[in-house]
């Protein structure tokens, strides 16, 4: 017998996205909980047309509080959470339906891949056993704390961003910091990310350092913080420190392709082609860590290092190697116009060189 599933949202002014999301997943669940945090558009009317259970929640600058309230209204065996600009593509709807039919009630949580763009992905614990009472933690960049029997699903949740990046999260962090509220290591890391995204590089570096000084962050966040620190220095024109911080990430685990591509880019920009070739080659040989939950730039683990190697070898006059790596890049992106143009160019250059 299939388990029952409650789908939970928190929403504010999602008239452009909520219907599209529910069209892809609403028929797969047994109830939909929409917690509205102050919409002034047609969000609640649209939710009503889909038969959602709608609740109002006064916004208190705390995403975890809103999500926990939504979870408290669920009545099914399991709770599935999405944002209004997420969707399930057709293949993933089939996988989700099968998961629902076969899920054993001893499972406490199910993780699913999360595709933020075609090249950026990670994993999230998306489906949780309601009776376990799992809670959301964190006012901003909240996370669902789960434990027990957790399985990995092949379902992919696709993010279909409509809203522009804003300073909303940064302002929440700033307000909490200004009144002396405690910040966890995770809070420090995400505060630094918001500062960096808003081009406040010096303050971002300060808070990345505060985060690293705790020695209590998740290793993937620590590695990413080194990379973000590197980006801050690069934006400020200090390439020596940019390289140092990219290299520092290797202290914490095996090299990540993102950091190797970052180093390759720095050296390519300085026309240090042999160094650039070295780091792009390393990136091209790495394998994605198994059971990862981190955000990954898929391009760094697939086509990008090969495309950049083609650029490097082209500048070195080695058109055979340039052609070789461009062909590998094309195997990942067979319709990419840049790579197709490269193919023609490298073949012409090889012929000229051989004549």
UniProtKB/TrEMBL annotation:
Residues 6-127 form the Glycosyltransferase 2-like domain. This is Glycosyltransferase. GO terms for molecular function: glycosyltransferase activity. Pfam families: Glycos_transf_2. SUPFAM superfamilies: Nucleotide-diphospho-sugar transferases, TPR-like. Gene3D superfamilies: Spore Coat Polysaccharide Biosynthesis Protein SpsA, Chain A (3.90.550.10), Tetratricopeptide repeat domain (1.25.40.10). It comes from the Bacteria. InterPro entries: Glyco_trans_2-like, Nucleotide-diphossugar_trans, TPR-like_helical_dom_sf. Its EC number is 2.4.-.-. Keywords: Glycosyltransferase, Transferase.
